[in-house]
Specification:
alpha/beta; 7-stranded mixed β-sheet; 4-stranded antiparallel β-sheet
Length: 265
């Protein structure tokens, strides 16, 4: 989708709208732009909002919460699901509260990190001069970032534009870790979690925790193509909307908020 969203997606009275974070709400590893923050606050005034990302909670603090400037009333409608929903937190009276936090065992984490480094070196995908950590233990998820956690956006986009490098690494590591889930993540990343954990898992958690029906939820992301880390949500039958970058998402959010305001008037 590159233009105005279709009326069948903007028109319904969605009770919850869920978003990917990186390259959907904000540029990769960067704070929420002011335009997006304003649009999200408007949406939080009229419906529940969830953010599901492969990133750990510090990434949510940096990219989302630091520049959202939401009121306690607006925050009460916000649901945060880091590491694909293996952790779920929301706000009560302005304070962040964990609903749950499912962590990998120490053995699972160590095995995953070892398999990632060994296989990345074997495939020639190990960066000897990275921008920050290559492998990060996020407790409920192990993440491989080929160029390092702090790599510049241009370098990340140029590293694996077809996704073939990530797919090859995920396939070989997955064969070594049959009890865990291994999948391509962002533009340079591969994520490892407990089996069955993906963004559809996070959406199911939202249904369970909020009581909002699946049919009343919309998911918006930039990787809804088959093989993308947002695709499991689409494959599991949720209504989805594909976007290309935060600027397009901001336009969509503004239209969604206006549509819901008009329905409530």
């Amino acid at each position: 989708m590159t233009n105005t969203p279709s009326s069948d997606l903007v028109g319904p009275a969605w009770k919850l709208v869920a978003f990917d974070l990186d390259d959907t709400l904000a540029p990769s590893k960067s704070p929420l732009p002011d335009q997006m923050a304003r649009a999200l606050r408007d949406l939080l005034d009229v419906c529940e909002v969830a953010v599901i990302s492969g990133g750990a909670f510090p990434q949510f603090e940096l990219q989302l919460l630091g520049n959202l400037h939401a009121s306690p009333t607006q925050l009460a409608n916000l649901h945060l699901l880091p590491t694909c929903g293996t952790r779920y937190a929301n706000f009560h009276e302005g304070a962040l509260v964990d609903v749950y936090d499912h962590q990998l065992t120490e053995d699972e984490a160590q095995n995953a990190m070892s398999a990632l480094e060994t296989t990345a070196r074997k495939l020639g995908l190990w960066c000897e001069d990275p921008w920050g950590e290559i492998i990060e233990n996020r407790n409920s998820q192990i993440t491989f970032s080929a160029l390092g956690q702090n790599a510049p956006l241009d370098a990340k986009r140029a590293w694996d534009p077809t996704g073939q490098k990530r797919a090859s690494l995920a396939k070989e590591v997955g064969a070594l870790l049959p009890t865990l889930e291994v999948r391509s993540g962002g533009s340079t990343s591969v994520d490892i979690t407990a089996r069955g954990i993906d963004k559809a898992y996070g959406m199911r958690a939202l249904v369970e925790q909020t009581g909002i029906a699946k049919e009343d939820m919309l998911f918006i992301g930039d990787r809804l193509d088959e093989g993308g880390n947002d695709y499991p949500v689409k494959a599991a039958g949720w209504a989805t909307l594909a976007v290309e970058g935060w600027e397009e998402t901001a336009q969509v959010v503004q239209e969604l908020a206006a549509s819901l305001v008009n329905r409530q008037a």
